[in-house]
Amino acid sequence: MQPGYDHLAAEYERAFPEAFRSPLERGVVAAFAEQVKECAAEGSVVDVGCGTGHVTAALAAAGVPVVGVDPSQAMLEIARAAHPELRFVRGTCDPVTWTQALGADEPPAAVLARFSLIHVAPDRVPGILRSWAERLPIGGVVLVAFQAVDGGRAVVSFDHAVAPAWRWHPDVMADHLLRAGLTERWRTVSRPDADHRFPECHLLAVKETSEPPAVPVSRGCSVDGC
């Protein structure tokens, strides 16, 4: 979620012309869509960091209302041209940007953030997750995907081609979600392969109550502010 994506939007679309790079990714997003439909909350899924809109389109095809949000105008132009029947708005992971676009009468029902939180500085991530949880209804769903860390480290930076980025330990991300009021339901972790340099995690959590839980036992986050 950085301005560098504006300069590389066309190249990005050539490199990633499809919504998913593996059957696992496709299945995870399909499972997320089913969880959203089970919740039956009013409002739309917000696809945060939607890029050129392929996953947004996959969600719409799965039968859930969805709006794509991205800070890159160039990426949004590609998304709108490819999927003119869908809605895309300019915004960031900060819900203030997309709640203004949606309007007060269209609350978010769920949030999808696939490989977009990786560009948010680690000390900001807990606050972002809390801001999502505050706006979601009971039963609201969040799915985050990120390059993962093995072992004892909580979060490490890595050499992303476009912008500063961080990899997270799945347990630490789950702790942040829980502290925000979002309870993990399931996760997947895939191993590196020819197309993926690092392990990758998809983690789904649900807002089960109106009040955040008591601060849970830490799982070893070693970064100040985590």
Question: Key features?
Answer:
two-stranded antiparallel ribbon; seven-stranded mixed beta sheet; 226 residues
Task: Describe, in plain words, how this protein is organized in 3D.
InterPro entries: Methyltransf_25, SAM-dependent_MTases_sf. Keywords: Methyltransferase, Transferase. By secondary structure, the chain is an alpha/beta fold. The chain is 34% helix and 23% strand. The chain contains 8 helices and 9 strands. It has helices at residues 4-7, 9-15, 23-39, 54-61, 73-82, 95-102, 125-135, 170-180, and strands at residues 44-48, 66-70, 87-90, 108-114, 141-147, 155-158, 165-168, 183-190, 200-206. The strands form 2 sheets. It has a 7-stranded mixed sheet, with helices on both faces. Helix 7 (125-135) crosses helix 8. It is globular. The relative contact order is 0.16.
In short:
The protein is α/β, with parallel strands linked by helices. It has helices at residues 4-7, 9-15, 23-39, 54-61, 73-82, 95-102, 125-135, 170-180, and strands spanning 44-48, 66-70, 87-90, 108-114, 141-147, 155-158, 165-168, 183-190, 200-206. Helix 7 (125-135) packs across helix 8 (170-180).
Which secondary structure elements does this structure contain, and how are they paired or packed?
Layout lengths: L3 H4 L1 H7 L7 H17 L4 E5 L5 H8 L4 E5 L2 H10 L4 E4 L4 H8 L5 E7 L10 H11 L5 E7 L7 E4 L6 E4 L1 H11 L2 E8 L9 E7 L20
Parallel strand pairs: 1-2, 1-4, 2-3, 4-5
Antiparallel strand pairs: 5-9, 6-7, 8-9
Helix pairs in contact: 7-8
